[in-house]
Amino acid sequence: MASRSFAQQLRRGITVLAAVPLAVATIAAVLAWLIAREVLAPGQAIGIVVVVMGLAALLALGGFVYGRRLARSASEPIERIQATLEALADGDLDARVRWPGRDEFAGLADALDRLLDDRVAGLNRAIRESEDLNDSVIAIMQAVGTIASTKDLSIRVPVTENVTGAIADALNLLTEETARVLSNVAALSGDVAQATFAVRGQSDLAIQAAAREQREVGLAAAELARAAQALVAVADRARQVNESAVRAGVETGEAVRVVGATLQGIAQSRELIRETGKRIKQLGERSQEIGQVVGIIQAIAQRTGILALNASMQAASAGEAGRSFAVVADEVKRLSESARESATRISRLVNAIQTGTHETVRAMNEAIAQVVQISRMADDAGQAMRRTRQETESLVENVREIAATSEEQARVSSALQARADVIREASAETARQLRAQSIETRRLVEYARSLVEEVSVFRTSRP
Amino acid sequence: MSSPAFDESDAAPPSATRFAARLGGVSVALPAGTPLEFVADATLYPLPLAPMRVAGLMQLRGQPLVVLDASPRPPGAVAIDRHDVLVVGRPPQAAALLVDGPPRALADGQWHPVRGTRPDCAFAAALDVAAPEPRASAEVGEALYEVDPERLFEVLVRS
After folding, report:
1. What range does the domain containing A316 cover?
2. Could A326 and B16 be called an inter-chain contact, meaning their C-beta atoms sit closer than 8 Å?
3. Confidence class for position B73, pLDDT limits 50, 70, 90
4. Binary contact (B8, A327; C-beta < 8 A)
5. Size of interface A-B (CB pairs under 8 A)
6. Choice between A97 and A238, residue whose per-residue pLDDT is larger
7. Which residues of chain A make contact with B102, given a CB cutoff of 8 A?
8. Of B14, B70, B11, B66, nearest to B44 (Cα)?
9. Vertex A248, ends A243 and A249: CA angle to 5°?
10. Same domain, residue pair A278 and A414
11. Could you tell me if residue B10 is inside a domain?
């Protein structure tokens, strides 16, 4: 029995329990058939039934005993297992089933014991690991607390081989990165502070510039107002100039016609002067001929004088006989002197005429040159006047456009004045905003200084 | 055409007693009785190896005449640019003098002789210089040196 498994015993018991009623029923059926065939007498049948019932009772008794034993063989290991589990539940990790035998319960108990051994070993290992983990966590917490209290980011969290090693590595990495970032933040804070100082300076300059801009915008608005008034005046003047230019164009056309007539008159005068000069030159040549004749007369008078002188000398050498001859010689002398004086006067007159002729010819040549120059100037003046007329016509058109443009500019200037007022308001608003920005910038400077101070409490391994 | 009647008494000028001429820068008075003839622009022909005072030869109506120069010419100067000559005498015995312009006829009262001083010239010896008068009245007319033509020629030839 002990070598059989509980399942075999259970199957055998069940088979026995099933065979008894079946046997009883079969016997009952056979008895019933026999009785029906009247093979057996009822008494015999009753005897057989009693025997069979006795056998059945025996079988039932045997089955009861067997079942009781079977139940005990099943309940004892289960109770042992239950007790073991309860002991385990009570904290007795050394409790084991330790059920002898080779049935299923023994196998179950052995398996349970081996499971418990394994689990207890695992639990002990877990406890040790938990203790190591606690130590690591405490070390990490202490290192973090030291870092937090001392602000020394150069402190490193001890790295263990358990799971906190990765955390320690991560914390160290975080600390290093934080130190690096704080270093950068410190540097950036310094830069921010400097930049903020610079921004504050720029803000002050911007405020001053905005103030100047506001003044300049005000001045520009005033200038624009005056410019608008001036442009209106310019538009009025442009209209007047337009009318004057139209009149100037008409006058220039008349002047061109007068200059043309003047040019014709000057050309005629030039021809007349040239002809007169030619005649005067001829007169000068004639006077030269007269001068030559006068020279001959002077030579004759001189020779006559010499003749008279010689005659008087001959008369004187002749004495009283030559007295009459001396009278004649004296008359001849007077005649020659008169002729010489007349010739001298004629010569002076001829010279004067020649001089006057030369002067007149020279003056006429100069007059011709001047007339030519005047004619050229008049021609130039005529061309200039024609150009002036063209330019005046262009001027009229331009002045008309200027007048229209001036009126448009006057309107635009009025609009610009309104815009200038808007700009002045905007500039004032900009100045106010800049003053507010300056205040905020000063606060930002304080913040930057605080940030630098805050960051400077951290000590890092970096210089 | 008729000429007006000639009235000799009214028209007669005072008779010339001297003829004033300038010889070598000296104003001299030649006597009116001397035959004189003035030739303007006379052509002179220089004579080679002639004496210093002989300016050359000229011709007067075909007659050659010796022309004397009374001007203070420096030695070696040969160019003569003056051609007014005064012929003294009648050809062929006449001679000519280079003068500074035509002579002028002078009557008495129009000149007076120079007294006392004799000029420094080549023909000073030929000049008649009167003695100065102690009570000299105011002289009228032009101051001239009187000269004798024949003596003038002689002095010039000798100088």
Report:
1. 181-456
2. yes
3. low
4. yes
5. 55
6. A97
7. 305-306, 309
8. B66
9. 100
10. yes
11. no
d(CA B50, CA B42): 19
Domain count, chain B: 1
Residue A135 is assigned to a structural domain of this protein: no
Question: Hey, what are B138's tokens?
Answer: 């105011």
Domain that holds residue B41: 16-130+140-158
Rounded to the nearest angstrom, the minimum Cα separation between A341 and chain B is 17
The answer as to whether A138 is a domain residue is no
The three state secondary structure string of chain A is CCCCCHHHHHHHHHHHHHHHHHHHHHHHHHHHHHHHCCCCCHHHHHHHHHHHHHHHHHHHHHHHHHHHHHHHHHHHHHHHHHHHHHHHHCCCCCCCCCCCCCCHHHHHHHHHHHHHHHHHHHHHHHHHHHHHHHHHHHHHHHHHHHHHHHCECCCCCCCCCCHHHHHHHHHHHHHHHHHHHHHHHHHHHHHHHHHHHHHHHHHHHHHHHHHHHHHHHHHHHHHHHHHHHHHHHHHHHHHHHHHHHHHHHHHHHHHHHHHHHHHHHHHHHHHHHHHHHHHHHHHHHHHHHHHHHHHHHHHHHHHHHHHHHHHHHHHHHHHHHHHHHHHHHHHHHHHHHHHHHHHHHHHHHHHHHHHHHHHHHHHHHHHHHHHHHHHHHHHHHHHHHHHHHHHHHHHHHHHHHHHHHHHHHHHHHHHHHHHHHHHHHHHHHHHHHHHHHHHHHHHHHHHHHHHHHHHHCCECCCC
Same domain, A92 and A220: no
Q: Whole-angstrom Cα distance, residue A437 to residue A92?
A: 76
Q: State the nearest Cα–Cα gap between A323 and chain B, in angstroms.
A: 8
Same domain, A355 and A226: yes
- Taking the C-alpha atoms of residue A303 and residue B38, their distance in angstroms, rounded to an integer, is 10
Number of H helices, E strands in chain B: 2, 11
B105 contacts in chain A (CB < 8 Å): 309, 312-313, 316
Do A122 and A193 reside in the same domain of the chain?
Answer: no
A400 shares a domain with A291: yes
CB nearest A327 (choices: B12, B32, B36): B12
Q: Is the domain of A104 the same as that of A232?
A: no
Number of domains chain A contains: 2
B121-149 residue pLDDT tens: 888 888 888 777 766 567 788 889 989 88
pLDDT number for residue B2: 42
A150 within some domain: no
pLDDT at position A4: 61
Nearest chain A residue (CA) to B35? A317
Mean pLDDT of chain A: 81
- Search chain A and give the residue with CA nearest B12: A327
Residue positions counted in chain A = 463
Residues of B in contact with A319 (CB under 8 A): 33
Q: Which residue numbers of B have CB closer than 8 Å to A's CBs?
A: 8, 11-13, 15-17, 19, 32-40, 102-103, 105
Taking 70 as the threshold, does the pLDDT of residue A100 lie above it? Answer: yes
